[in-house]
Design goal:
alpha+beta; about 425 residues; four-stranded mixed sheet; single chain
């Protein structure tokens, strides 16, 4: 169907339809809180190919010219105003960069639509739906001020708060699931094509391009009081977290880990543990140290809302050494008096887990790794201040290799949980 529309445009111009302007609007989607072009997301691959193909065909046609290309973007209203404004700008810039790397567009025909009323867009989606409490939602969107301040300038109410509180958060969650992806992920490319006319004045063309059609994606937006503040620096689409396995902490094994989102619902995690508790008078040792790496793929509805939450699967690899003895027989991994590499035990396996929010900046991640653990370990008995070797064994273990109940601290300005209505 898209191909037929493009061919019809080219055909009409080739047969000499005079003075007509053709407008083509094509949507490119973005993932949550991301401004990176992802060809695997939605219909992006075909839509981007259509944009490039249409512009290329017009440039090659001697009877047509491109008089304007306008890039617009939007972000869903659950995000904070300033961050959403920056995200919109980043998405527009990302799409423009992608297209202009493939099509030679002069600066004189490129325009940016940097104001989009996301609330008006949301109202249109709600109006076209049969969602519960539809009339109440439309009333709040259209009648409640976006921000309400008292005489001292303190924010006391907002449109978003009322919508999030409606029906105990269920109404907001419905819109978050059904409507927000279409708003959040939409960046619109508007192409204006006009048959070449020698008598056409360039000023008329520019005036036409500067006043695009008022569609659902190009409605002007009123700037809120928050947006009068200085614009923050462009934010990264990466999400970071610091974490600790509370099961290891309970066993007196201090540990720390970090995790970073890599985009496309992938993340990389690393952790390290170190414990060196001893009582030489009683020959008691509790010595463990080592670390691991995990590559994770996140999936499920929660992961659509924000990285590093929801279900995840992945692969895990660990190295560790230990010396455990409580007054009787002791067990030591690897070579006695050796380094970590000489005393190395290792494990690798597949993992499954689920991360859930418990506070604004905190998640709990439940994970289980099952696979293989190998390496050499020694048995000894402490006698008169010495450790008498008893046996050398090779470990071959198949089964659970790691269990986590991890406290996760979310880092970053946009990396937090919302009490009602989900995450940004």
């Amino acid at each position: 169907m898209k191909l037929l529309i493009n061919l019809a445009i080219l055909f009409l111009c080739c047969i000499g339809v005079s003075g007509q302007t053709y407008r083509k609007e094509i949507c490119v989607g973005f993932r949550v809180s991301s401004s990176e072009i992802d060809l695997d997301y939605g219909d992006n691959a075909s839509n981007l190919a259509e944009i490039v193909g249409l512009l290329t065909d017009v440039q090659r046609n001697p009877n047509m010219e491109i008089t304007g290309v306008s890039f617009c973007g939007s972000a869903s209203p659950e995000g904070r105003s300033l961050l959403n404004k920056q995200l919109v700008a980043d998405r527009c810039a990302s799409l423009e960069r992608y297209i202009r790397q493939r099509v030679d567009l002069p600066d004189s025909v490129v325009f940016k639509c940097d104001k989009t009323d996301v609330w008006q867009k949301l109202a249109i989606y709600v109006e076209r739906s049969d969602m519960p409490h539809k009339d109440d939602v439309l009333y709040q969107i259209r009648q409640t001020p976006e921000y309400t301040y008292n005489a001292k300038g303190t924010l006391v109410d907002s449109r978003k708060k009322r919508l999030m509180d409606m029906n105990f958060g269920r109404t907001w969650n419905y819109m978050l699931r059904e409507f927000f992806p279409s708003i959040r992920n939409a960046s619109i490319l508007m192409v204006y094509i006009k048959q070449k006319q020698k008598e056409t004045k360039q000023t008329e063309i520019l005036q036409e391009v500067k006043t695009p059609i008022q569609s659902v994606d190009t409605i002007p937006q009123e700037i809120s009081p928050e947006e009068t503040q200085p614009m923050p620096a462009a934010k990264s689409s990466r999400y970071f977290a610091i974490k600790t396995n509370m099961l290891y902490d309970a066993l007196a094994i201090p540990n720390i880990g970090v995790e970073v989102s890599l985009g496309r619902r992938w993340s990389l995690a690393a952790d390290w543990m170190y414990a060196w508790w001893s009582n030489n008078n009683k020959h008691r040792y509790w010595r463990v140290y080592g670390g691991g790496l995990s590559a994770r793929k996140w999936f499920g509805h929660a992961s659509e809302q924000k990285p590093l939450q929801g279900h995840h699967i992945g692969i895990n690899a660990q190295i560790l050494t230990y010396d455990i003895e409580f007054g009787g027989k002791g067990y030591m991994a690897g070579e006695p008096e050796g380094s970590l590499w000489n005393r190395l035990n290792y494990a690798f396996g597949a993992e499954y887990g689920y991360s859930m929010p418990i506070a604004k900046r905190l998640n709990i991640d439940f994970s289980l790794v099952a696979g293989y653990m190998g390496g050499r370990y020694y048995e000894y008995i402490p006698i008169d201040g010495h450790y008498v070797w008893q046996a050398t064994n090779n470990r071959h273990w198949w089964g659970p290799t790691k269990i986590e109940v991890t406290l996760v601290w979310l880092l970053g300005n946009n990396n937090y949980n919302v009490k009602k209505g989900g995450n940004k």
